[in-house]
Amino acid sequence: MKGALTVFRAFFLMGCALILSACATSGSQSSGGPIPTAPLTNTYWKLMSLKGTEVDVPRGAQGEPHMIFRDDGKVNGFSGCNRFVGEYTVRGANLLFDSMASTKMACPDDSFETPLYEVFSQTAGVFLEGKVLKLLNEKGHELARFEAVALP
What we know:
The protein is of the alpha+beta class.
């Protein structure tokens, strides 16, 4: 009887171990684990919200508002109407834009352009986690939110 009880315990413990390992494996696969943080530079950052309003690019638009930070301290992108270029500086969580300039195309709907350029002048900080980049004002409030997009 004592031998049968020992065998039962052994099988019971092995069964528990198998169930726990199956749970751990399925849990990590379903959640996918943490999303690695996209690098600030050389990433296509698509504009998702601007001053608290979700960005919805109209069908037939010239392109989606986006920006790309370069390793050399330059930034360029598209506002939804015009292309822009400039410089940026990052020190810790502080981000500042400087010398911003844009083309001067006349567009029927440039609803993102003026607020986006205002955001550049008001930006004092940056928050970067996963695929999300937020431009923040000096009080830490979100001015604009971008998402990293893989290029084809």
